[in-house]
Amino acid sequence: MIRRPPRSTLSSSSAASDVYKRQILICLAIIFLSFESTSIVDAITSEQSLISLSSGAFLLEKPAEYSLTFYGFYIMDEDPETGWCSSEGEISNHIFVIELAEETVLHNLKFDSASVNIKGSAAKDILVELSNESPTEGFQEIARISLADQKDNQKFPVSSEPSGRWLRLTILNNYGSSEYTELMDFRAFGEQLTETSLPDISGTYVSDYHSDFHLMQQGTSVKGCYEWDEGILTGNFEGRIVKLIWEDSYGKGPAIMVFSSDGERFFGLWWYEGNEGSQGEIWEGIKQSQDVGSCPY
Fold it and tell me: CA triplet 134, 55, 160: central angle to 5 degrees?
């Protein structure tokens, strides 16, 4: 299959192969196909992880990773076989900051670590905090836990239940590896207290496919283009999630994107049509102008 050109990297992670060796979470594709008549708020239940992409959560800050195969997002994908791995030699005090879709109260946390790749690399002691002030201040501890080594479905109640919009996860150490620290999945369950809408996301973004990405929002509809191979985009909002169809001369397919609450960044996954349940590719962008602009075609 003809592939798109290599991505540039917007994060501080090391360069790595663009071929992902593991399947991206199948349920994200199912969400794309099944949310036609259900709002995201109605779809979220106490069994839905509120820090997942499918809930509209956005990864604001992550530690460096070994490669894009172990990108920080993979602790949020609800798949215990994909996850994050630190860069070599960096084994302690790794911080993730996740912006939740709404002000939220969390009750329980779950962690997976059975599928780590290196003996002794599984995350051990973890601090979880929540803030309703900002992504940098006002954090209150809601859990301080010790994980078992290489075990899935480790469930913990929180120690306190403040409400908040930003979650900070700190992996303090591991089970003895001097090379790497790994965490495969992190899930959080509770209640969303608010239902807010994003600011208008219309504008021009620089994306990681060496091209500008132009979006126009009209109500809950989105249309636009990307300046590579005459690509066009059409789609709709479902709560915090934007469902898009992309099309260019290489083919077409669906994409799922989540925008930060200020509308300045997006993160998502895209598939070729017919392969939604198999392999996905990451698509990221940062707003460079409020002006939508236009593609040169």
Answer: 55
Residue pointed to by tokens 């509120």: 50
Tell me how long the chain is: 297
- In degrees, to the nearest 5, what angle opens at C-alpha 55 toward C-alphas 52 and 58? 60
The answer for residues whose C-beta is within 8 angstroms of residue 256's C-beta and 6 or more apart is 28, 31, 32, 53, 241, 242, 243, 244, 268, 269, 270
The structure tokens 């499918």 sit at: 54
Alpha-carbon span 122 to 294, nearest angstrom: 47
List pLDDT tens digits, range 19-78: 333 433 444 444 444 444 333 333 344 488 999 988 999 999 999 999 988 999 999 989
- Render the burial of 161-187: b for 16+ CB within 10 Å, e for the rest: ebbbbbbbbbbebbbebebbbbbbbbb
User: CA-CA distance, 44 to 40, in Å (whole number)?
Assistant: 6
- Residue 169 tokens read as 């996860």
In tens, the pLDDT along 85-125 reads: 999 999 999 999 999 999 999 999 999 999 999 999 999 99
Helix (H) or strand (E) segment spanning residue 29: helix 26-34
Residues 6+ apart with CB under 8 A from 11: 62, 284
Q: Which two tokens stand for residue 93?
A: 């005090």
Q: Six-digit token pair at 37?
A: 């008549």
Q: How much is the pTM? A: 0.81
Angle made by CA atoms 135, 52, 83, in degrees to the nearest 5: 95
- State the DSSP H helix or E strand holding residue 26, giving kind and residue range, or none if neither: helix 26-34
